[in-house]
Amino acid sequence: MKGAWSEWKEAIFKACLVVFSVLLFLFFDGREFWFTQIQPQLTNMLSNQKTELNNAPVVSDKTFKQPSPVQLPNGDTFDHQTSLRQFGRCVSQQAEGIKYRVENGIYTWVDERGITNYSDKKPSSAAKHYQPERNRALDFFDLNISGPNITEEFKNTLSAKLNAVFRGYTSIVGLDAMRKVTLRIKVLPNRREYERVVKSYGGNPKESVGLYMGRYNLALVEQRNHHATMQTAVHEAVHAINQAVMGYTPRWLNEGLAGYFQTVKVTMQVGTVAPNQARVHRGYITGRVLSPYELINAESKWKYYNSELMYKSSWATIHFLMSTTTGRLSLKKLMLQEQTERCRALSNRESQALLRAHYPNIVDRFASFIRSPVEPQRL
Fold it and tell me: How many CA atoms lie within 13 A of 4 on its CB side?
């Protein structure tokens, strides 16, 4: 009996020693613990995810009306796709994937579920070894943000949000599909300076408060209040992630992902995407929204339709897809298919075929979704 108890004590002691070693390593690694990558294992699906009903209400696709042509876009919206084509980089070969690191005998890597792992043994995944610069938490991105009024608190908060966004992407497409992103964000102190700098790069600042130029790995952001500036910075960073991970994409997918992730919040190292308050009223989506198929068919008509409707519908479609297992799988298939031809966006027909194959009752489910409260989603 004593021998068995001794073995148990020895096992407990070894386990405590490993945990203590990891914590000690992290402490002396010089990180700020409030936004490190340690987080408990989360389930892939959200705790507040809507339950998929077997008997969904049958709603005809005719319920969703075609948008009316309007040539006066909302001042807060901007067609990034034109700029992405003009200033983007078409790189047919994928960038280098994420790797694991090892320091003091401790291995760190992110698995296919987006969970950060620590162990004294090498991971069994296909990740390759790398040695990062000291104090770099993960090999997700190189971020350089500058601006005369940008504080360290702003930089830290933005880094934490982007780390959460990368975990969200990894939970969708898996570790192997993720690519490292190099991004510079320049926050201009006022509208006049923003317009001057955008024009100096050959861009058009009209009706925009942020612009991503992939050719230069640069996002230009007009500084407004703290909340608006932060959301714009995240939005433009997501455009950079999209281009690095997928290359050229349809407008609805590119803007939908950027609009979805721009409201990310981080609490105790857990990322949550809140409903975009500019798109909802008292928790519900109000007004007209295009169905996914209608949105895809309007791909070539963004310049001639109500921009607010297009952005709203794109955001709603991504939020909808992220709310269920079937939706996330469909989104994964779309994103991985985009990776196969990085210099060409999926056609309307290809996008619709993928959705029909993996989400055959998407129209009915989407109609039910927009009639229900829009809830936060964990990444």
Answer: 1
Tens digits of per-residue pLDDT, 11-68?
676 666 666 665 554 444 433 333 333 333 333 333 333 333 333 333 333 333 333 3
Between the CA of residue 343 and those of 216, 217, 331, what are the distances in Å?
17, 17, 19
Q: What are phi and psi of 171, to 5 degrees?
A: -70, -20
Measured CA distances, 345 to 235, 260, 337 (Å): 20, 20, 10
Is residue 258 within 8 A of residue 229, CB to CB? The reply is no
Quote the pTM value: 0.69
Q: State how far the Cα of 36 lies from the Cα of 38, in Å rounded to an integer.
A: 6
**In contact, 184 and 144? CB cutoff 8 Å:** yes
Q: Which two tokens stand for residue 18?
A: 């490993």
- Looking at residue 77, what is its pLDDT? 38
Give the pairing type, strands 377-378 and 284-285. unpaired
Residues 6 or more apart in contact with residue 312 via CB below 8 angstroms: 279, 285, 287, 289
* pLDDT tens profile 255-275: 999 999 999 999 888 899 999
CATH homologous superfamily for the domain 80-247 = Collagenase ColT, N-terminal domain (3.40.30.160)
Could you say which DSSP state residue 62 is in? Answer: G
| Nearest in space to 198 (alpha carbons), one of 56, 190, 337, 275 | 190
Distance CA 366, CA 67 (A): 17
CB proximity list for 37: less than 8 A, separation 6 or greater: 110, 116, 137, 138, 163, 269
